[in-house]
Amino acid sequence: MERSKQQLLVRKNELLKRLAAIRGDLGSGLASDSEEQAVQLQNLQVLQEIERLANDELVAIEEELSQLDGVT
Question: What is the pTM of this model?
Fold first, then answer.
């Protein structure tokens, strides 16, 4: 099922917000408590994978939008 341009733009905006939040989390540094640092380091890998997937989807959306713009 093809998505409309509006659907793509909404999803793109959602992904950009999510990526901004992830990058904020990744850039916040580690806590001073060693136990909290351990949890943060475990979460780091998850955040990095979520960031990668969101970036991949964003690239795909940009490609779809380009194709739609080329068709109109």
Answer: 0.79
